[in-house]
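cron nightly-structures :: item 1 of 1
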Amino acid sequence: MTRLLSDQYGDHSAIDLKQRYEEIQAWFSGQPVYGDISTAVYPPASYIELWPFLHHPSFAFVRSLWGISTVFCLGLMVYGLVRGVKNINFVEGAFIALFLLATYSTGVVIGNGQLTIHVLAALLLGITFICREKATFADELVGSVLIIFALVKPTLAVPFLPIILFSAKSWRPIVMVSLGYLAIAWLATLFQDGNLISLHLDWLNRGMEGAVWSSSGGGADGGGSNKGKLGYGNLHNWLGALGLSQWNLLATLISLGLFTYWVYRYRFVDTWILLGVAALVTRLCTYHLVYDDLLVIFPLFAIFRFLKSYNSPPWLTKLSIAVLSMSILVALLPARFLGKPFPWFNLFHIAQTSSWIVLLVFLVYLAQWIKQRNSLPQSHPVFSELS
């Protein structure tokens, strides 16, 4: 929080918030953002959604407002997670809250002024409202608004959309999300030269160029010999290491297509399992930096909820506890390893990426086990009702 609110850490203080602030000022002044600002890798609608937070003359005020909103969204995440299991006790709830604060990625998100906490909170509560067993139109409307806000960062939010498409109780949420986002995107175009199509093509080109440049070794500076090595554990970085960055978009689209088909096949299993798999697919299929590792909170909680809600055989219970414990320990490793010389940052990358792949394989297996055994929890296999 100190790094977010002051400049005592130099260029690393609120670095992402400063970039979004610059882009917001340029967007609403009519400056060609995608042509003039290299960091502008967000779509037009994102600048409308960020306007209430960032369109102020004082950056000091923006910092304070963003810090308050970050703390608020952390509280919403804890609330949504704790309410995800009806029979959770105080110690378990406290552990979830403290774990969320203790993971290495949370501190990086806050210090950079990144969007990850805001987006994950909106996704969690949005899908909660939409996928309730007896969701009303009001639930769907609130959930759709939250999902539209989550789309402020498409690389985080888009892979979760198949859950809404196939697990919602009606078609209304996906229609409201689509039309609402389209309306905001159109509104954003009023402040720039160009139309809805041309501006989105400009954004897509800028985003693809940024992903290729970053995943090929030109990304964020990890310090000294670690330059360009903060992006890791995703298809774009692996393709970049092989000199195949031109296939980034196709690889991502194929991954999302396969995941969408998988969600359709397992749409009747516990929605938390789907949420956990979606988080891991999100982290692995597109270029991300360390702050987006916070996605791991969803698959970890999916396993915790499985242990609390299902009567599984002893061997599966023990295996679930082992996978959960291993993943928790890895998620608590200090991010400062990224600034250490060889081999520490390599070991950090390997530990994180390996744990995500293990989680993904295990959650896919749990989905298959639930589907085969039809072993549903006492409540409906979607989210527990929020009070």
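cron nightly-structures :: done
Residues 220-228, 375-387 have pLDDT under 50 and may be disordered.
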